[in-house]
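The data are quoted verbatim for reference:
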Amino acid sequence: MPTTFDFTGKTVFITGAGSGIGRATAEAFAAAGADVTVTGTEEAPLRETAKLVEAQGRRAHVAICDVTDSKNVADAVASAVQTLGPISIGVNNAGIEQPPKPLAETSDEEFDGLIAVDLRGVFVAMKYEILAMGESGGSIVNISSGAGVIGIKGQAAYAAAKHGILGLTKCAALDYADQGIQINAICPGIVETPMMSRFSGGTPEGRARVIAQEPIGRMGTPEEIASAVLWMCSDLGGFTIGHALVVDGGQTVGIS
């Protein structure tokens, strides 16, 4: 059985593609033969990701997109289809973090902001990806978190959003499995990304604190998460429906 991925002729739509997991996933799909639309709220980092896609000999399309704005998302999907052709794969990665604080110290605005980006943004992106796929079918992977399967002190709003992604994923998977659209989620642990640098405070002490949560003794890499995304979207993962794949270095093992 082959262990390399071939996405020749496929087109991929990725939210939050300006850095971290989104950027690594865009580059990995391009290396496997796909053309990629990269979306996010800032143009400069998206252009950098697009260069990485093009360096693999594939086409890249940049779409400025705020996932909290339904029209933004609809327009980005439409421009992707117009530029690269029908969407084969959607990867919903856009998200923001929560500074650690107890629930009662979390403002309504902070909670609403996290839900708007991390949960509602996935709902909206899925909706327009599904409509764009239509009868051709395809695959969607939503990026949740280890905080989507366990509780984490000081992360009530973030965990609520990431738990919600799993509910969306499971229900939508059942809605569309018989229409040839495969929907799953991945729950990364502590991964070396700009978001994690902000979360840890960007200090050696903060970095050591978060790494101490990982039984494997290190952070994961964006490329390790990207490889899981590609597997889910490949023929090898074709019997996987509505699943939340935890890729976390053991962080959540034994925790319920």
